[in-house]
Specification:
mainly alpha
Length: about 350
């Protein structure tokens, strides 16, 4: 029987580090990608483990045991770095599943502290769009090449530093976002909305259910066939606005925030505040602005049924107050706008 491999150098995970980030840091110490190290460890008795990757949301304990043995760490300590263990009250739909936005100022703080740069766990929470430590917007686009940001980590002056995987630009030394007063003010306002949303997501299940309902409806397709526009398009002042390509995957999705970039997630929070006020969620009676938006949503069966077991006992509170909206939305022509052949027939920006 083969003896499991032991890696001679294995950095310890930081307290707020993503599990996948720690795996990347371990592999980077050997100038390799995590998959290469995983295949090596699997070859020491891990069966087909080399074909899989460590997942932050649903980690495979077999893989964690391989890494734990190789790095001489308690596997339970690694498991506690997974997102469900770190945020047990966070629903799965509120974890980002694609790219991880980053805060450049946090990377600069790593440089100043003389430690490896790493990815923070809370960056993968869907409601997180502003860094709470530095009050700057998180970035998911490289400032150098403007492409989708996918950091890679390499040794630089004895420590790991983040680089853009696409253009190879170093992601430290810039001080984060440019100190534009408008950006600073916007980030401060969104930060407060972000905190409110976090309390709702990990708090009262009834309010979370209504919040999910509102977000899915805002990102539902319009009732006009072929419009390629979500319902929240009516919130804008441009009647002919079409949904950008980067946000189209969210239209009609049961978990829109998972498919949205930072700026679109931030805008969603702003629209929720604009329509529903400080509570950010609809109540039993919808405001007039919400009625106008919600009645323009194309009929969607999943809006009438809860996806969570906590709501299976009865009809959701938001459904009780919005039955009339559903009846109107199922009409071929809306009573306030009968000409869907012309984009100018759509409403402009709507406020409460």
């Amino acid at each position: 029987m083969m003896v499991p491999a032991r890696l001679p150098v294995a950095p310890r995970p930081f307290r707020d580090e993503l599990l996948s980030s720690w795996v990347v840091r371990v592999a980077a110490r050997y100038g390799a990608e995590p998959l290469e190290v995983m295949i090596y460890l699997a070859g020491q008795g891990g069966r087909d483990a080399g074909a899989r990757q460590v997942d932050d949301v649903a980690p495979d304990m077999e893989l964690l045991r391989l890494w734990a043995k190789a790095c001489r760490i308690d596997p339970e300590r690694l498991h506690r770095r997974s997102l469900p263990s770190r945020y047990p009250a966070q629903p799965r739909d509120w974890f980002l599943t694609e790219t991880v936005p980053t805060c450049i100022a946090c990377f600069d703080a790593d440089v100043a502290a003389g430690r490896d740069a790493y990815l923070r766990g809370h960056w993968r929470l869907a409601e997180q769009v502003v860094c709470q430590s530095h009050r700057t917007m998180l970035l998911d686009r490289c400032s150098a090449c403007l492409g989708r940001l996918r950091p890679s980590f390499r040794m630089l002056n004895g420590l790991l530093r983040p680089f853009c995987r696409r253009c190879d630009a170093v992601l430290t030394g810039g001080g984060g976002e440019v100190e534009d007063p408008l950006k600073v003010d916007f980030a401060a306002e969104v930060l407060e909305l972000q905190r409110q949303i976090s309390r709702i997501v990990r708090g009262d299940s009834a309010r979370l259910d209504r919040l999910d309902y509102a977000i899915r409806t805002l990102w539902a397709p319009l009732d006009r066939d072929g419009a390629a526009r979500p319902v929240l398009a009516l919130w804008f002042e441009q009647p002919g606005w079409n949904c950008p390509f980067e946000a189209r995957a969210a239209v009609g999705s049961s978990a829109p925030l998972q498919h949205l970039s930072v700026r679109w997630r931030a805008l969603t929070l702003v629209i929720l505040h604009d329509i529903f006020g400080p509570d950010l969620v609809p109540g039993a009676v919808l405001p007039e602005a919400a009625l106008v938006l919600f009645r323009r949503a194309a009929p969607m069966l999943w809006l009438a049924h809860s996806r969570d077991a906590r709501n299976r006992k009865g009809k959701r509170a938001i459904d009780v107050g919005a039955d009339r909206v559903h009846r109107l939305s199922k009409r071929r022509f809306h009573r306030l706008n009968r000409n869907f052949l012309d984009e100018r027939g759509d409403f402009g920006r709507i406020h409460p």
